Every structure is written in structure tokens, then in C-alpha cells.
Amino acid sequence: MNNISLVKCTCEDAELLHKLQREAFMPLYDRYRDDETSPALESIEAVTRKIADSEFYFICDGDVPIGGVRVRLFRNADENIYNISPIFILPDRCDKGLGTAVMEKLFAMYADADKWSLATIKQDERNCHFYEKLGFVPTGSSTVINERMTIVGYEKKV
Question: What is the CATH number of the domain that holds 36?
Fold first, then answer.
């Protein structure tokens, strides 16, 4: 059994979060070459701004940070819509059930959610399957980034 926890980041954590994000997203960048959108290419300043304007957490296994997840609240009429962007776990820690544990923790932490939203790479069938397994459904929205990559929206109503 894993010992996953979510630890809120502060702006002082930006350098470590940036390093983890870069390491986690570099394999996707190498595959899709999304120069304008890849989290692997974000600056430390951009990560610092995201920490300041949202809830950004380290994903920790025990005391060891192994990834991160950012959550933002959007209100729409009478709905609390929480957006996840980005979520990442170091490549050598994937396929161990950690992503599912993280998502379950988020769902419990934000129990006032009416809906969850996120976006992922259409061509990454593994990620699409992961979100669908958790009850997310495609919204029909899509943005072509380049000839190799399209970003698609997902949502989960609670």
C-alpha cells in the first residue's frame, strides 16, 4: 500500500516543483514537441505564479515529493467547478496506482465540488483511459497543438 499525501506548495517551493514538473513532462515533450504548451518548458517564474494563484500541491510518497497537482476553483452559476492542471508524477513512479490515490484524495478534499474538469492529450491513450476509469467523460472540446498532438477536455459531474 502506498503512503501518498498532498502537501500544499508555497512560492519558496517553486524551484523543486519546477524540477519535478520538468522531469515528469519531458518524455511527453520529447514525443509531441509541443513547444508552446509543454509544462516541461515552463519557467520557474511561471510555476511561482501558479503556486500564488491556485492550490498547488506536492504529491508525496512518504516524505518524498514525486510529483505535483494544481487545483483551481471556477464558479459557474450555482456550481463549484474544480479544474486540475497540471497533474504529474515522476515517470519511474507511474503505473503503481499512485495517480488513482491522488485523485481520490482530491475528490475527498474538495467535497463541495459539483464538477471536475481537466484536459489531456488525445493521442495519449493511457492518460485518457486513466481519467475515464475515474468517471471523467470527454466534453467534445479539442485544441490541435501540432500535427502530433491534440488537447481534449474531460469533466466529471459529482
Answer: 3.40.630.30
Cβ atoms of 155 and 76 closer than 8 Å: no
Domain coverage including residue 73: 4-112
In this structure, is residue 146 part of a structural domain?
no
Burial of 39 (0-12, 13-18, 19+ CB in 10 A): buried
Pairwise CA distance, residues 119 & 85, whole Å? 7
In a domain, 154, yes or no: no
Count of domains observed in the chain: 1
Rounded CA-CA distance 120/84 in Å is: 10
Confidence (pTM): 0.94
On the CB side of 31, CA atoms within 13 Å amount to: 10
**pLDDT tens-digit map of 102-132:** 999 999 999 999 999 999 999 999 999 999 9
